């Protein structure tokens, strides 16, 4: 056998052993790599989601659970002791614990507690340091850094003045926490289910009736911003004019009257209709001997609500012509005003 025959024989053997890759397997191989890439992307995205969203939320809720347990334990003990018929009145007063004692042992900035029943709003209220008013935008009640921040008030709002309007600030988180439920007050049905807010400051416990809900801009390019962050007033007329400006901007007309002697709270959170927008809810303290209930069926949409200028440019409609405070007062158009 010649050399060329040997080469031909070896070639046939090699051809038989080196079978071609099946066509089906060859055509599936690119999809395999695509699938692998998708799986890896899913794993990475899940890790990011857990790290950036779920873990911070769980940590925030864990910290708040501790605060709520302190507050509820003391409040429950107070109810039990004051309701006992076997304890003399003098002993009752001494035995009732302050719900804020344990909270303030952790952080002296705790100054109150706010609850909107049947919603996520159930938080301690913090007093921001005088030199760092934005501190609690990024810190929890234990001063840990968090994107959730806290519900807080400014120390400048209560320094050496008689405060008629207490303003509380809080983030509107996309997961529905912090002050996010306030955005639901765009719905009259939500208001009818939640017409009051419970706000306790210091040793006082009070129920507050909501009387206005508005949208406010902070950018002058969107129209002249309304200064809703006013806390003290020079005189009774100054306070009433402020209330008038609040009422004409309210999305609804609520069956809640106001006296010049009343105290109010303002709840402010971010809104998303425009850059820098705020949703602001106003409430007044329930008076002594006044019922906490509200005739919610009498609440109606405000037909002439005054929005910021940018609102009409985007959503249509025309800005209503409204009298100033003095003309409205002379014309008897302050139906919500109740004299002392």
Please provide a brief summary of the model:
Helices cover 36% and strands 17% of the residues.
- Sheet with most strands: 8 strands, mixed
Strand content: 15-25%
Oligomer: single chain
Poorly predicted tracts of residues? 78-95
State the end-to-end CA separation. Answer: 128 Å
CATH homologous superfamily annotation of the largest domain: Sortase
Organism: Caproicibacter fermentans
Active site: 171, 270
Protein name: Sortase domain protein
Pfam families: Sortase
Provide structural commentary.
This protein is α+β, with helices and mostly antiparallel strands and 340 residues long. The chain has 2 domains: 23-97; 108-330, Sortase (Sortase, Chain: A). Helices cover 36% and strands 17% of the residues. The chain is built from 8 helices and 10 strands. The chain has helices at residues 3-17, 23-82, 89-95, 101-106, 188-193, 236-249, 309-315, 325-330, and strands spanning 110-115, 122-128, 151-154, 165-169, 196-201, 206-216, 252-253, 264-270, 278-285, 300-301. Strands 3-2-1-5-6-9-8-4 form an 8-stranded mixed beta sheet. The protein has a two-stranded antiparallel ribbon with strand order 7-10. Strand 5 and strand 6 (206-216) form a beta hairpin. The radius of gyration is 31 Å and the shape is globular. The N and C termini lie far apart (128 Å). The relative contact order is 0.10. The model is unreliable at 78-95 (pLDDT under 50).
